[in-house]
Write a structure and sequence with these properties.
The complex is a heterodimer of chains A (about 120) and B (about 180). By secondary structure, chain A is α/β, with parallel strands linked by helices. Chain A has a 6-stranded mixed sheet with strand order 1-5-4-3-2-6, with helices on one face. In chain A, β4, α4 and β5 form a beta-alpha-beta unit. The radius of gyration of chain A is 12 Å and the shape is globular. By secondary structure, chain B is of the alpha+beta class. In chain B, β6 and β7 form a beta hairpin. The relative contact order of chain B is 0.20. Classes of the chains: A alpha/beta (about 120), B alpha+beta (about 180). At the A-B interface, α2 and α3 of A face α2, α3 and α6 of B.
């Protein structure tokens, strides 16, 4: 599934205007626990989370995150957006909850990451 | 899940060695040869702006050396968990990275206050993280289990009231 389809399904807002929305997203994982994300992400993955601190971006230095969706109307500070821009990580905000966002994407065919 | 034949745990000390690597790991720890390359970084207490930078540096260095992406991920995840542990639970400490032909040795030393029960701390889901640390998304109780899962040898030396030493090896040619 392409990132632009994900943005449309989640009625999302793109925080980095220059982001490439044509990238292919193979799978997704949803969590607010950093250790869970580290343990479960072994392939290029879209992350859905309610965490907006800098460690969420730092994670992308360790594992292969292709983009981050901030759920339930959460918005990161500008310094976090800048960190993502340096790493070329697309950021999307949605007002939907994590459960609803995950369900909509799953129903649309975006699979869960292999754990 | 790997076998537990090589797990040794005593009061204040914990060893895990992936089965089949006992001889190589023991030889290394008794000889402690000079590393081909070494890196050091400080880990200040509760500084979550800095935490993770050292691990990212190590990963980038290994990447430049041409290490397999799967191995890179294991080193980065284990190093990051260990770095966060020092920042979240100790009075601050440091990370030392020693790179050899066949493996990487990462050493984390802090200034205390130590782990009172290592066995308990190794239990998935057990955490002593405070609210501030949990709010950042840490404190799942998976830090040490995640380090063990991603390393080929893990050694922890700690007791309540004293500094903690945590060190692990990841071989460049090993499979998880």
């Amino acid at each position: 599934m392409k990132l632009k389809e994900i943005v449309a399904i989640l009625d999302g807002e793109i925080l980095l205007p220059g982001a490439n929305l044509d990238i292919e997203v193979p799978c997704a994982f949803s969590s607010d626990l950093i250790s869970d994300i580290l343990m479960c992400t072994k392939e290029p993955t879209l992350l859905l989370t309610g965490l907006t601190n800098n460690q969420v971006i730092r994670l992308c230095d360790m594992i292969d995150i292709v983009g981050i969706v901030f759920v339930r109307g959460k918005r990161p500070l500008q310094e976090i957006i800048d960190m993502a821009e340096e790493r070329n990580i697309p950021l999307i905000c949605t007002n939907l909850t994590m459960y609803r966002s995950s369900g909509l994407l799953f129903n649309a065919g975006l699979r869960s990451c292999k754990i | 899940m790997q076998g537990f034949a090589a797990v040794k745990s005593e009061m204040g000390e914990y060893w895990y060695i992936r089965p089949g690597l006992e001889e190589s790991v023991n030889d290394y720890f008794s000889a402690q040869p000079e590393a081909d390359m070494a890196l050091e970084s400080q880990i200040p207490e509760k500084d979550f702006n800095q935490a993770g930078k050292g691990s990212a540096e190590v990963k980038n260095l290994l990447k430049r050396l041409g290490v397999d992406p799967g191995i890179l991920r294991r080193v980065a995840v284990a190093a990051y968990e260990a770095e966060i542990n020092v920042a979240a639970h100790s009075l601050g400490g440091m990370m030392v990275c020693r790179i050899y032909d066949e493996f990487i040795h990462l050493i984390f030393k802090d200034m205390g206050p130590g782990i009172s029960d290592i066995e308990q701390a190794m239990t998935p889901g057990y955490s002593t993280a405070d609210d501030m640390v949990r709010e950042l998304g840490f404190g799942a109780g998976l830090g040490l289990p995640n380090i063990k899962k991603n390393s080929d040898a893990l050694h922890i030396l700690s007791e309540h009231g004293n500094p903690t030493l945590l060190e692990f090896l990841v071989y460049f040619n090993s499979d998880e």
